[in-house]
Amino acid sequence: MQAVKGNGTMASLLTNPYALHDGHGKKLQVSGTAVCVMATSEQTAGAFNLFEVACLPGYATPLHIHYGEDVAVYVLEGALTIYWGADKQAAAAGSYFYQPRGTPHGFQVAGRTPARLLCLAIPAGLDRFVVEQDQLAASPDPVTAAARYKIEILGPLPE
Question: Which pLDDT value is given to residue 140?
Answer without folding.
Answer: 64
